[in-house]
UniProtKB/TrEMBL annotation:
Residues 401-435 form a coiled coil. This is Oxysterol-binding protein. SUPFAM superfamilies: Oxysterol-binding protein-like. The gene is LOC101064389. Residues 39-48 have a biased composition (Polar residues). It comes from Takifugu rubripes.
Amino acid sequence: MILVPVWFFWDFCLCLDSDESCEGGSESSFKDALADGGSQKNNGSVPQKNGMKKHRESLPAPMFSRNSVSIWSILKKCIGLELSKITMPIVFNEPLSFLQRMTEYMEHTYLINRACSLSDPMQRMQTVAAFAVSAVASQWDRTGKPFNPLLGETYELIREEQGFRLISEQVSHHPPVSAFHAESLGGDFVFHGSIYPKLKFWGKSVEAEPKGTITLELLKHNEAYTWSNPYCCVHNIIMGKLWIEQRGKVEIVNYRTGDKCVLNFKPCGMFGKELHKVEGYIQDKSKKKHCIIYGKWTECLWSVDPQVYEAHKKLEKKGDKTLKNEENQGAENDDADDMPEVQETVSVIPGSTLLWRIDSRPPQSAMMYNFTNFAMSLNELDPGMEAVLAPTDSRFRPDIRAMENGNMNEASTEKERLEEKQRAARKERAKNDEEWSTRWFKLGTNTHTGSQDWLYTGGYFSRNYQNLPEIY
Ligand SMILES: *[C@@H]1O[C@H](CO)[C@@H](O)[C@H](O)[C@H]1NC(C)=O
Ligand SMILES: *[C@@H]1O[C@H](CO)[C@@H](O)[C@H](O)[C@H]1NC(C)=O
């Protein structure tokens, strides 16, 4: 995923959740960072109009500049210490819990609703493919690290205008596993999964394999689709400009029909020609190709007839021969791992159908962690909601709330307090030989894939919050 980016790398390479920590960021540069932001104060809540809830479109405070805090300076201070004992300063975070960030899958719920309304299974598969690609789009340029969910933390989101409700829970801390379950308010679909990222170091970059399956059930069609997210790679983790690449194969399977969509998130390559590109095809049970899918996960996705596509490629190849030489001249194979400059947009093959196009980000996005409109609203807490939400909801996290309001010192102190509290609770359980029990999800078998999965046990929305752990 998705959805599964940067933040986990941070935790991996710099282990935020260590039991002891060397508070890395140099004190003075952290203060400098504090000085250049946070003047604007307003909690961002918007009054309701016409009964339809209008969500806030910005955060209460702009973000602090990270420029003065280099990761290198933090690492230098900690030389000789174990990597697991380094804590990144909070200035590298974004004010969302990973549970909230995972919920950004739902930004393009209209695509699931569209898939439900289509009668042709091939068209449904195209729309599901668009949904799967659109789900990683919010990661574009989001290098802030979400807060690690605390064990037992939950997050709910109800969006009547988009027609769904979602509940998620942090079901394991080591390894970190986040489970979610969303359902349509009209009874059309169920969408669930769990994410457990596995990490690999490649020197200058870190790659996360987002383990865990995502399942989408279209109930009226009696269909289930499953897939997993592409690998997410973050470049220049030590020095230089951070940038994000999604790569690898994503296979979406329709269990009822046997149709399959294979999507290839391309590595960017030498000249950056493949940067952010996604290409793939849909085949039926007998492996006959029905359509070609292409686009960029940062922009848009198209589908086209395989024959039209092949004809177009042949034409392109003829034209390409003359271009080759020019390209080679520009090739400088230096050591940098910078994002290539070449960023031509998707060239549309005549006769293609648009499946999805990314929404532009709001104007204040650059000052606010590059959030999308959807992300801006995720930590919104109306006074009316306080009495309704479970006390474990991410919106009640004092560290995230403080950061959102621009109070970085308070955020930092609170984050440490919560982590300490979590460690103390773990030690207490160990002493008493108690096992942690999850509340809304149980480990079971995904009936479609036959593998182990975290499944929702139901009942969250009857709002019986007895026996919830006190994690804040
Ligand atoms: C946000 O501000 C409004 C008006 O100043 C106030 O009525 C409301 O209670 C505040 N909400 C929160 C969540 O602090
Ligand atoms: C937001 O995007 C810009 C433009 O690509 C980038 O330079 C910046 O580092 C990003 N900010 C964050 C917090 O990721």
